[in-house]
């Protein structure tokens, strides 16, 4: 599995991915999930993939090949939306080739991607591409995407990231989100690829590979845990009130179950409303 997170803020873009791959406890290795398509002065596009590694690598390989017959590629797409469509088309091409054989081995076609970047003269944009090749774009309400094991790091990003978040703070938030995921999920692992893109730079200026020897990441890991425990200790304990509303039960209280109906009672319940009314009137006259 993997965990990738990307953020689109006013100052630029942040991309972070782990490198853990596994196919069971005996087959754990590392592979990069981030690919960078850079043409300095014209465009910087960053693609991160999660899911079946053979599928994500097949898609990246297709995207790395030169276009034929005027076909759009990541190198000549006129805008980021068209670049997302190029990635979606590559996903569908791999699906057409591999989905059937995978199904014969009871394997599902599973891959997803985050694509972000900037093309000269246009604003930075961020997209998520699904296994079907369709995609969505980030918004100012939700300026980030996650793929892979996202649940452990999501609450942190939800509470921190807004479009106005400074770029360095967004990078710090991404690292804390990743650290929480590493803490709780063995299928995500170091080293990490971190790329921070400054708006209108049109080239990569900030990139780092972080492992357990990296001083900043060690500081993030240690400080985040210490501060969480500190804040937890500062929050007041629950204040208990009068327990008069406790739903107490006696020691030998029995649960009363519905009584089984006799056949004649079942038949009576199945009578029509008119029959039931007539019977009630007869009973009233007899009384």
UniProtKB/TrEMBL annotation:
GO terms for molecular function: peptidase activity. Residues 264-287 are annotated as: Disordered. Keywords: Hydrolase, Protease, Proteasome. GO terms for cellular component: proteasome complex. GO terms for biological process: proteolysis. It comes from the Bacteria. The keyword Lyase does not apply. This is Proteasome-type protease.
């Amino acid at each position: 599995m993997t965990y990738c997170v990307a953020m689109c803020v006013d100052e630029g873009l942040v991309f972070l991915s782990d490198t853990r791959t596994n196919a069971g406890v005996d087959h754990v290795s590392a592979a990069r999930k981030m690919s960078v398509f850079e043409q300095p002065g014209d465009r910087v596009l960053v693609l991160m993939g999660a899911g079946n590694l053979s599928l994500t690598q097949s898609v990246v390989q297709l995207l790395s090949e030169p276009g034929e017959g005027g076909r759009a590629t990541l190198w000549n797409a006129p805008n980021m939306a068209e670049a997302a469509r190029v990635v979606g088309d590559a996903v569908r091409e791999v699906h057409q080739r591999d989905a059937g054989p995978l199904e014969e081995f009871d394997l599902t076609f599973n891959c997803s991607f985050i694509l972000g970047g900037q093309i000269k003269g246009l604003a930075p944009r961020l997209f998520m591409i699904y296994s079907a090749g369709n995609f969505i774009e980030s918004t100012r309400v939700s300026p980030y995407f996650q793929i892979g094991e996202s649940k452990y790091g999501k609450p942190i990003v939800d509470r921190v990231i807004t479009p106005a978040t400074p770029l360095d703070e967004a990078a710090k938030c991404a690292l804390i989100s990743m650290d929480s995921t590493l803490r709780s999920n063995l299928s995500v692992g170091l080293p990490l690829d971190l790329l921070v893109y400054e708006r209108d730079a049109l080239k990569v200026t900030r990139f780092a590979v972080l492992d357990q020897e990296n001083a900043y990441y060690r500081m993030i890991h240690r400080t985040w845990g210490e501060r969480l425990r500190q804040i937890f200790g500062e929050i007041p304990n629950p204040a208990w009130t009068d327990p008069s509303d406790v739903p107490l039960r006696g020691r030998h209280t029995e649960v009363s179950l519905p009584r089984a109906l006799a056949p004649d009672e079942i038949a009576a319940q199945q009578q029509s409303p008119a029959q039931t009314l007539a019977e009630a009137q007869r009973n009233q006259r007899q009384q």
